[in-house]
TrEMBL record:
Name this polypeptide is given: carnosine N-methyltransferase
Top-level class of the enzyme under EC nomenclature: transferase
Keyword hit for rRNA-binding: no
Domain of life: Eukaryota
TM helices/strands, residue ranges: none
Pfam families linked to this entry: CARME
Keywords: Methyltransferase, S-adenosyl-L-methionine, Transferase
InterPro entries in the cross-refs: CARME, SAM-dependent_MTases_sf
UniProt KW S-adenosyl-L-methionine keyword: yes
Originating organism: Nicotiana tabacum (Common tobacco)
GO MF annotations, alphabetized: carnosine N-methyltransferase activity; S-adenosylmethionine-dependent methyltransferase activity
EC number, as in UniProt: 2.1.1.22
Length: 494
């Protein structure tokens, strides 16, 4: 009987791992499908142009050159993506046979987190003092609102499992030549002055399947899946998130969202010591900038993130950036809508704006991959944290009450919860999934629930902000985000 139970458990774990490998393969395939999907868009725009009557074409004779420039920008973005994938060390054995999932009907899309309770949720490694963040692993971010909201809603269960850790890895070699990289760095202010004189599709084709033999085995094209376009949209959203977190252009958004949080932390913890820094948890840490800034303020900070899309990218920037401005990406090329000028659409963005390893992080900085609910509802997390910071995170919940409950549990008595964000519930429009749960409370109700969990309001205001916005776009979605500081009552006052 006991043996049977052990066997069943082993079988269950094997299936879960196979499912996770399949999920990760799909995410990697989405990244690898980026150049092809972007090229399809350019071809569509070209087809429309070709349908124009000659007199109209004559008025728009600059467009063919724009299409070529777009292709070159796609190649540069693809270069960045491929560099990122080359150094990604999958936390799982990617060579295993995942057909097992099909047989076991485990790969159905559902929106619940699919991770196993039996897996160790604390696979987070702390940073070394030498600077890099050794961690991680997992999905999110099109337009600002779509980007903010849809990512999570579009994410199938397979991408939402808890994640292990992305460790520092050895770089392989991409068949895109250094020349491409350098051309990227030579781009002019107008976006694309120095177009390479050879086939601009060279690099994108290179990253779209023809992976060189020096690339990691798990990038083998034969292992790649055909992914739906919505998956590639998530890659485009990640590119926008890179601007929010890691570009000078994102400074305004960071000033709106991150700065008030950082100022609040400084006010609440005035006497931070290096020897015994206060601890701070950042659930839904995205690409890690806020967590890094908190660490640099003198906190032992842990970011938590369950999206492999996000984790692959944050690990790349946090662990592998050698210098500020090392890469050039073209985040705004994927939409022709609401552009004041083509130059705005084609403008380059340098990333990262700072060198993370030299930013002055405090020991104990880590990024923990996994579902917030699963990881932090573990009893070992009770009363561990001095502060919890949630930024554009609360509304990612299926059950926001559960999030509040866990935040209260993980805080020490007297600990603080700083929140900034709207209530654009990510699962609110998942009406196609009958089993989907989405508890959508008003701000008043959220605050009432927090009081029930022993929180006392210390500060509250509204902050007007954007999320992954193209600052030169004619369309700017604005949020009037709730910003609060609550303190968990001490045992004596409960
Ligand atoms: C709207 S983004 C905000 C990211 C970041 N805090 C910022 O302000 O840019 C929400 C993030 O929470 C992550 N997330 C959603 N549900 C999660 C969960 N249950 N556990 C951990 N992370 C989650 C998403 O993957 C996404 O990166």
């Amino acid at each position: 009987m006991l043996n049977m139970e052990i066997e069943e458990e082993l079988e269950r774990r094997k299936l879960e791992e196979a499912l996770e490998v399949k999920s990760l393969r799909r995410i990697i395939s989405a990244y690898l499908n980026y150049p092809e999907a972007a090229e399809e868009d350019v071809k569509r725009w070209e087809r429309s142009f070709r349908k124009l009557p000659p007199r109209h074409k004559a008025l728009l004779s600059h467009l063919p050159l724009k299409f070529q420039k777009l292709r070159w920008c796609i190649a540069q973005n693809s270069y960045f993506i491929f560099e990122m994938l080359k150094v990604f060390e999958p936390p799982l054995d990617m060579s295993q046979d995942v057909d097992i999932c099909e047989n076991q009907h485990l790969d159905v899309a559902s929106d619940s987190h699919h991770s196993s309770k039996s897996r160790n949720p604390y696979l987070c490694e702390s940073t070394s003092t030498s600077g890099g963040v050794d961690c991680h692993s997992l999905a999110e971010p099109m337009s600002e609102e779509t980007c903010y909201r849809k990512f999570r809603a579009l994410t199938n269960v397979n991408e939402e499992q808890d994640v292990d850790i992305l460790k520092k890895s050895n770089a392989g070699k991409c068949s895109i030549s250094l020349e491409d990289h350098e051309s990227a760095n030579n781009i002019g202010d107008d976006g694309c002055k120095s177009l390479p004189d050879r086939d601009p599709l060279y690099a994108s084709a290179c990253c779209n399947g023809n992976v060189s033999s020096s690339s990691p085995d798990w990038l083998d094209p034969s292992l790649q899946l055909h992914v739906p376009l919505v998956d590639v949209d998530k890659v485009r959203c990640i590119i926008r998130n890179i601007v929010r977190d890691w570009a000078k252009e994102g400074q305004q958004e960071r000033d709106q969202c991150y700065r008030p949080i950082l100022e609040e932390l400084e006010r609440l913890f005035p006497n931070r010591s290096k020897e015994n820094p206060p601890s701070c948890l950042v659930p839904g840490a995205g690409l890690g900038r806020l967590a890094l800034e908190i660490s640099c303020l003198g906190f032992a900070c842990q970011g938590n993130e369950f999206s492999y899309y996000m984790m692959i990218c944050s690990s790349f920037i946090l662990n592998h950036a050698q210098a500020a401005g090392e890469w050039t990406i073209f985040p705004w090329i994927h939409s022709n809508c609401n552009s004041v000028s083509d130059n705005d659409q084609l403008r380059p963005v340098s990333v990262p704006d700072i060198h993370p390893a030299s930013a002055g992080i405090t020991e104990g900085f880590s990024m923990c991959g996994g579902d917030f609910v699963e990881v932090y509802s573990d009893p070992s997390q009770a009363g561990v944290w001095d502060a919890v910071v949630t930024c554009f995170f609360l509304d990612t919940a299926h059950n926001i009450v559960e999030y509040i409950e866990i935040i209260s549990e993980v805080l020490k008595d007297g600990g603080v919860w700083i929140n900034l964000g709207p209530l654009l519930y990510h699962f609110a429009d998942m009406y196609s999934h009958e089993d989907e749960m989405s508890i959508e409370l008003s701000l008043e109700d959220v605050k009432r629930v927090a009081l029930q969990y022993g929180f006392i309001f210390e500060k509250e205001s509204t902050i007007e902000t954007t999320y992954t916005t193209n600052s030169r776009s004619m369309m700017q979605n604005r949020y009037y985000a709730a910003f609060w500081t609550m303190r968990k009552k001490t045992a004596a006052t409960l």
